Amino acid sequence: MEEIERFISRYCDPLLSGQAGIAGISRHLADRQHAKGHLLVQEGQRHPYAYYLLQGAVRSFYLKDGVEVNTWFAFEGEMVGSFQNYLGQASRETLQLVEDSRLIAINLNALRPLQQTSLEVSNFVRLVIEEYTAFLEERLFHLQHHSSMERYLYLLDNDPQVFQRIPLTYIASYLGISRETLSRLRGRTIL
């Protein structure tokens, strides 16, 4: 499948990746389609898959005092999953599809042993984790060092598709503000 080869080549250096390593990864990938609202991962559960998003949108959230707190959104060309699941632990978050989606499912239980025997697979996993760590560091920095208006403008400038594809209630939660505050911020920037 062409999508799987593109996915692997994104994280594997074609000059270093042998066909054995790529074949090792490919055997543990599956093309999946799910409808909007489907839960890929549920908070408190162990889930043996991570996903590469071919089409659609995903949100991550956790419950705090019965209220959903959105932590990230992902779109085409991005990896999604629970890092705790990768470590073999129960997830701290729920991953839900915000749109009908097509994904490549990666079997984490099969990937772990391959990391021990294949440099290509080990590098693949390392690059995915590096990308995820950089994202989390940037997210944390913006939450701790910027005002709500600055966070809103940053999201608007750097990921405008969020405002076209994600409900405003989820965006407000992601920005750490109320829906009403988000409406006021949007009104100020339109003027």
User: What is the CATH fold-level name?
Assistant: Jelly Rolls
Assign the structural class, choosing from mainly alpha, mainly beta, alpha/beta, alpha+beta, or little secondary structure.
alpha+beta
Report the total helices. Answer: 9
Ranges with pLDDT <50 over ≥5 residues?
none
Strand content: 15-25%
**Helix fraction?**
40-55%
Describe this structure in words.
By secondary structure, the protein is an alpha+beta fold. It has one domain: Jelly Rolls (Sandwich), CATH 2.60.120. 50% of the residues lie in helices and 23% in strands. It is built from nine helices and eight strands. It has helices spanning 2-11, 19-26, 83-86, 108-117, 119-145, 148-158, 161-165, 168-175, 179-190; strands at 29-34, 39-41, 49-55, 58-64, 67-74, 79-80, 94-97, 101-107. The strands form two sheets. It has a four-stranded antiparallel sheet. Strands 2-7-4-5 form a four-stranded antiparallel sheet. Helix 4 (108-117) packs across helix 5 (119-145).
